[in-house]
Design a protein that fits this description.
Phage_tail_protein-like_sf; five-stranded mixed sheet; Alpha-Beta Plaits; alpha+beta; single chain; 135 residues; Phage_lambda_GpU-like; GpU-like_sf; elongated
Length: 135
């Protein structure tokens, strides 16, 4: 659905404009084919989106916004935490075009357990967005 893409694009643009040390920012889950060329990276994706029809012709969505920060394994959790702090400040203190409500709900780490080539930290937020007329 287009509103989901618009929400992700809004976050991708915010990150690209404010965290220049991240070379690749993906709208959706990242798929890595060349880690040396693609890391560091951030992936912006939504999970568990649900629609609520509030008023005739308008809809409001609620979803989990996930922002995953990927770094080479050798850079460690302290660097992920440093970038996550920047991302969290952006998400928390920015006004949005499509998003009406943001609340942080989780922060977790992940690791490439097969090759030990990357690690990630994922910030998760509960968001409400939409209110676009239904056509």
């Amino acid at each position: 659905m287009l509103i989901h893409n618009e929400v992700r694009n809004e976050i991708v643009t915010l990150i690209k404009n404010n965290i220049p040390e991240i070379g690749n920012v993906y709208n959706g889950r990242a798929f890595f084919t060349s880690l040396k060329q693609q890391l560091p990276a951030i992936s912006v994706f939504l999970d568990d989106a649900e629609c609520d029809f509030k008023v005739m012709g308008e809809s409001e969505w609620q979803a989990e916004l996930n922002i995953s920060i990927f770094l080479p394994y050798s850079e460690g959790e302290p660097n992920i935490d440093r970038i996550a702090e920047k991302v969290n400040s952006l998400i928390t203190f920015t006004g949005y075009r499509h998003i009406q409500f943001v609340r942080g709900i989780q922060y977790r780490y992940g690791y490439d357990e097969d090759n030990a080539s990357w690690m990630n930290g994922t910030l998760s937020y509960l968001i409400e967005y939409g209110r676009a007329p239904i056509k």
